[in-house]
Amino acid sequence: xxxxxxxxxxxxxxxxxxxxxxxxxxxAQSVRLDAGGKGLNVARALSxxxxxxxxxxxxxxxxxxxxxRLLEEAQVPCEAVQIxxxxxxxxxxxxxxxxxxxxxxEPGPVVMLEExxxxxxxxxARVEKHDLWxxxxxxxxxxxxxxYARLIHIVQxxxxxxxxxxxxxxxxxxxxxxxxxxxxxxxxxxxLTGRPVESEADAVCLIKELWARGIGVVALTxxxxxAIVGYEGTIVAAAPPEVEVAGPVGSGVxxxxxxxxxxxxPRPMTxxxxxxxxxxxxxxxx
Length: 286
Hints:
The protein is an alpha/beta fold. It is built from nine helices and 13 strands.
């Protein structure tokens, strides 16, 4: 089973206008609601690919109830850990004429230590050997910086594997817990090693260093330049295709879900298949 954990999920509202006019009343052509947050985006993508996935999230208030309803409608099972605060809302405004968007994210509620303790207890009771646990996104306000490191230790000490996609000090502390997969960008990679990552040679050195620390998969993302991925002894540089910008909701999950799809396969890939697979990751999939 794959479990995607989201400690700061969001209700994402996307409004599309024909042409954005500043200082004027703009009328939306369409409005869309999504259960958002990095962890829930991954859960929805994995579910769409037909993989066994369970979401787990800290949710609260009426916004949290709406988020859970949307997940149920999308047939994504979610184990909710209730909190006193209100789940945050994010708003994206898409300008169809310009092909651009603006996104405004709320910071989210303050999470109490008792609520995090309840989450840890739920994870401890839920984790099974050979599970894959995905920890994605920024920590909520009130969470200790070593929260992800503690959660990684909980699941991996019980025979499961952890995947981490976050930033800042939580990334550094989480990496020290040696998750199965780590997905930093250039700036985050410098936080991990203290050295800038400016070239492919720098990226290869980073991947090998993190392998030596016990991290199995390293996916260094480089924005429009694509990514360099190190996976079971293979390092591949791949550039993403040119795509039309339609908004940020759900973006950035293809790399993680593709690697997880491979991991869930009953037959391991050959070296040649793995290289082709890693190059395929950057072809965006529905």
